[in-house]
Design a protein that fits this description.
single chain, about 625 residues, alpha/beta, six-stranded antiparallel β-sheet, five-stranded parallel β-sheet, 14 strands, about 10% strand, membrane, YhaN_AAA, coiled coil, YhaN AAA domain-containing protein, transmembrane
Length: about 625
Amino acid sequence: MIIREANIGKFGKLENQKYQFAPQINVIYGANESGKSTLMQFLKAMLFGLEKTRVRKTLDTYNRYEPWDTPAYFYGSMMFETGQQQFLLERNFYYKEKRVRLVNIRDGEELSVEYGDLDMLLGNVSAAAYENTCCIGQEQLLPGRELGVLLEDERSNLAQTGSGDFQLSKALQELEQKRKNAEKTRKELEQQRLSHIHQLEVNQQVLERDIAGLKAQQEKQSTQQGTVQERVRALQQQMEPVQTAYQTVCRREQELKSAVAQEQLKWEQAEREQWKREQFRREQEEAEALQQKSGKNAGFSPLLLIGVAGLILAPVLRSAMDGFQKIAPALNIICIILILAGLVSAYRKSREKKTADSGQKHRQSVNDSVQNHREQDSRANDRANLQSVEREGRKAALDQQLQRVCQQKSVLEEQLQQLKDQKKSLQLQAARQEGSGDQLQSQIQEKEVELENLTEQVAELQQETLDEQHAREDRDALELAAETMSSLAARMSKTLEHTLDKEMSEILAQITGNVHEQLQVTDGQGIVLAEQLQKRTPEAYSQGTMQQAYFSYRMAAGHMLMKEEPLPFLLDETFANYDEERLRQTLRWLAEQENQIFLFTCRETEMRLLTEEDIPFASIRL
């Protein structure tokens, strides 16, 4: 790659400047503060961009070269060629309006920096690799720590394509990040599983506590049921004598009621006999009274008397009453009818008297019989009265006994009912306890089944899940991949390490005139000078020798990292501590390289030595 022209709009103190460069060595000469370092930073910024950092305590490159008066006008352009093609690169560095444009000058095609076209033209070299190899500023005479990492990545390029696509450190970082992610996933899954186990164990403890409580409640209830059953049996034993006494009293009551009923039947029978005798006696008395009455009224009829009286009184009434004449005939007829009826009645009674006289004797005999019967009835009545008194006494005694028995029965019924109520209450309580016991047993069985299921789940969760196994396998695979990659890279990088050691040793030997011939890279990604079976770091030597050792290290590393496209060397006061002879040898080595060289210096020594060595160069005075 060759930079042909640089146009600076505004960059640091440089403004509206245009510079053209030679394809090989360019010496930019100027006094202090003339803009040499600014021009070098511009060229580097055009190639790799310029970012504004967020750290306010440090003055970064952006803030250092940002125009003070017009920060928005922070731009420039550059023409370069590579692969026999010329390109125009324009950049606006202002962080609020960042813009970059890359154009192929031959065909006018605009390329995409965003999609990596510029990176491809630069050989996919990173800004860090460039700054630690080809670009050496006044404050960066020693390479940064990144160079060792970059070289390790390059030496670990298993494909050895020189493209720099593979970077061991980045790959290992990615593998480590993936391993951490896999381990994090595994731990999260394990934590979830352990958390689930803990929750299940808590549920187990709760269930065990519930089951223990239910069993204790069941045992207590069983004890209560036993107590209730004992009380029921005790009540049953208490009820048996009461029941027996009650049955005895009931039988006695039935016996007394039967005796009272028999006495009642006897009393009713005696009452019926007494009533019959009284009835017979009354009938006899009525018959005697009728007989006597019949004897006195024989041949006499009241109708005859009324009829005769009516006929006698009719003339008197007719003369005394004016209206009587109208009813006199009818009244006479009635009187005649009454007289006739009275005659008929008198005739009948006369005949009855005769009949009665004829039966007088018979009635006399009957009366005698009746008299005898009355005497017998009187005696029977006396006996009946005596028997009635006896029956009433017996009945009263039976009634008293029955009353006492009924009272006893009532008392026994109350006692028996109380005992039955107590027994029923206890039986209901026992039934409720039995139902509650069944419910408790059902709950215990359900919780035991649930506890068994939880135990099985806990046992299953003690083993890793498939996701955990996969995460662990991924982690192990990533660890193995990193170990394998590191091991293979370590073995394969030995060859490149020897190549690097050889090249930087040759560079240092040429610069120092074979005074120092062996320079090696250490495992700590530093360098040492090996002399007389001893190894010392460059810091153990003079400032100039130290800078020459690191310069050799940078240049050899640059050749390793930039195999596709030789990028320009930007060297700002790099040789200030070199003596004239070693500077001469360094310039000779630079002239042999295919890279474009930019030497920024405030001395004329470099130009004089180049002239003496007949090395072509172009000079720019600032």
